[in-house]
Amino acid sequence: MSTRLTALLAVIVLAVLAIATFVAAPDEPEPDQTPSPSAGTPRSTPTVTPAARETASAVPTATPVPRETAPANVTAASTPPEPAPGSVASDRAALVAFFEATWGVNWGRSTNWLSDSPLGEWHGVSTDGDGRVTSLHLDANGLSGSIPAEVGRLANLESLNLGANRLSGSIPVELGLLTNLRWLWLHENQLSGPIPAELGRLTNLEMLFLPKNDFSGPIPTELGGLTRLNWLVLDSNDLSGPIPPELGGLASLELLALYRNRLNGPIPAELGRLTSLRNLWVSNNGLSGEIPAELADLPNLESIDLRDNRLTGCIPVGLQHLLEDQAADLDLPFCKPEPAQGSVASDRAALVAFFEATWGVNWRDSTNWLTDRPLGEWVGVSTDSDGRVTGLSLESNGLSGALPAELGALARLEWLDLGYNHLSGPIPPALGDLTSLVRLALASNELTGAIPPQLEMPPHLRELYLSGNPLSGCIPVSLWELPNHDLHPLRLPSCAVAGAASSIDDRAVLVALYEATNGARWATRTNWVTDRPIGEWYGVRTDDEGRVTELQLHSNGLNGPIPVELSRLANIERLWLHGNQLSGPIPAELSGLANLITLYLSDNDLSGPIPRELAQLSNLKELFLYKNRLSGPIPPELGRLGDLTWLSLGSNELSGAIPPDLGRLARLERLFLNDNELSGPIPAALGDLRSLRWLSLEANELSGPIPPELGRLVRLETLSLQVNQLSGPIPPELGRLTHLWYLRLRLNSLDGPIPLELSNLTNLRGLDLAENELSASIPPELGRLALLEGLYLFDNRLSGPIPAELGNLANLRWLYLNGNGLSGPIPPELGGLANLQDLRLFENELNGQIPAALGNLANLRSLYLSSNELSGRIPGTLGKLTNLTWLELDGNRLSGPIPAEIGSLTRLRTLNLEFNQLSGPIPPELGRLGSVAWLILHSNQLSGPIPPELGGLTSVERLDLYNNQLSGSVPAELGGLPNIETLFIRDNPFTGCLPGALREIPSTDLAHLGLPYCE
Q1: Which of 60, 94, 304, 307 has the fewest CB atoms within 10 Å distance of its CB?
Q2: Cα–chain-centroid distance for residue 820?
């Protein structure tokens, strides 16, 4: 069980490192999607375009593990003795405390730690555009000591991974202050004490991984309030007490792993409310009482492990298919069905379930189905004199999807003929309950998995037709004795002779793997090629017969080719070899691993084509091949993997078209084909992937229109088609994707208006339509997207006013409308966007005054209004924007004085007011801008002397004051600026002499002044 969890953990870690999203936060994700340096950069500033501005203007994106770093060319302000909370300095202090508390001098890697480099360049640290720490990943890095309370000061932290180290002590309660945290990994350490109830405050948490520690005490009931939690993994600790019923409130939970603890009491019936739950693992505890029947109602449950407890009663009917292999260990009988033989109503309910599961709305003929007509008048249905169903014949009728277990409730069914359709998934064991069944015909479909042994049970069965399906496993012996069958074409062995191989054979395979991949230099090779049982070899898990079922050697330094001998591990279910240096082709022989469920070969150096033979892995659910050098086309045969839920082929060199056959993967939830060389259109058949939650096709060479059929993917949460060559309008059908969080269509050639239907996407967090050819006005209806955090419409051909309704987007953090033809005034309603951090309206045709209401944007970091037709005075209220680091108002018609209040912006790195009509003196208060690196005031009508207070600009690198009406002598204080590299002050009527220290500045225009240097 622990190996299974570690593998699942690996999936998330890989997904986190591979998938890009919008806000500083993954998928799947897959590869990083850092925008091009010019994305959102002012493009036509009349003179200089500072490199600092270019770095700062990179559009914020969000990945499950943020990767943005502070601009390398910006000199950090000196750290005060006591850094202010909520700053880069306070983050630096927290990391220093962390380094010291965890014996950083002994870490495996500590590149740049405790240096003056930006925090984002410290090993394992990622930062946002402001240089604030967003992720700290130091897993398997030799950390020891304890986690210090100072980590709780990293207020912007979204991802914390300290797993697989030697940390001890307790979890500091201060971690409960990290309200932005989404992922917390502390697995495989020596942490102890109780799990802090304060973790229940982390309302944004999606992953909580605490396995393989020494935690004790009860599971905090407060964790039941983490409604966004997807995985709760607390196994292999010393936890005690009952499972809190409050965990039934975890509406998003997909994995609950509590095994190998000392939990007691009943399994709460409230867990039956976890409608998203896929895996429930609570084995090896002291749980008692009956198995709650409510668990049988969980619609997405795929795996449940209840072994090694003290459970009583019987196994509920709805769980029998999941607990068949545990019945002996549980020592519990199966609950008997209700003694009644059913009714017409129960038959009708079973047929309705069958209709829905097989996409009845798409059948060729569905006459009378789901109507009030008698069941015998429903096409393909036969009934007896009591109206009970005796036959169901829908051969060649366009059925798809999976056969539901509810068919087992048709107690009087005598013949079931569903051949020549597109049914997928396994044959339900519940068909063995059909005691009246005489004929079962399922030939020529896409059914997968093994033939259920329960098919030996119907006493009257005479005809069985299963050929033309990619079934695996073995054939139950008694089925060969049926009078009529077509089992020979399946080419499967009889179960009587299956499993002839032994653990001795598996040992030889492992030795071959060790030798082929330079095992002597693996990072960990405990017990390998020794006489110990192979189940004790590092990364190997075996079954009761000593056969290998799992091989987990990810990130372990394997080097060399994958040996074909691996294909002889007949019982293996999970193979994890990702994160190594494996090279050469993927052996086609791996297609012989009939029991394989998960295959992870990502993040290696594999090359050559993807073997089409992998389509024979009929039990495969997860296929990860991303981040290799695989080339050639995507095999269309992969569309036969009917159980596949995750297909990740991104970051390779794949070419050719996307096969429409992938549209047959009815259970697929995540499809990543990004960062390849795929071309041609997006197949409309992808619209048939009704289970899909994540679709990433970005960074390819795809062309043609976006298929409106993608609007059928009603479960989709992320759609990323950016950086392709797509053209035509945005289909209004995308407005049906009401579960969508992120829509990324940037950098294509899309045209036409923004569809009003996108305003229906009320769960949207990020809308990126930038760098296309979209036209017309911005729909005011977008103001209904109440959860939106990022709106990116820059570099299009949009026109008309900025809708005042955008001021309703209370959660908006990034608003990029630059590089269009927008006109009219800036709506003062934008001043109500309390969470806004970056506002970019430059390079438009906006006019009127800058609204004083923008001074209410307390969280604003960047304000770009350059290259418009704005007029009037600069409002003094901008001086309230104390978090501002970039202020660019250049290239407008602004007049009047520079407000003295601007001097309050002590975090400002760039102030650009060039090419306006500003007048009056330079406020001496600007000398308080201790962090400013670029001060650009040229080409205005400023007058009076240069204030000597500008000598206080200790961080300034460039000072541009030329082409004004400044007078008097040049103050000597400018010669003391420690970091200045450029000083331009020509075209002003200065008098007197020039301070001699100005000679040391590398780049000046002082020769144009015609003034002598002071002696």
Answers
A1: 307
A2: 31
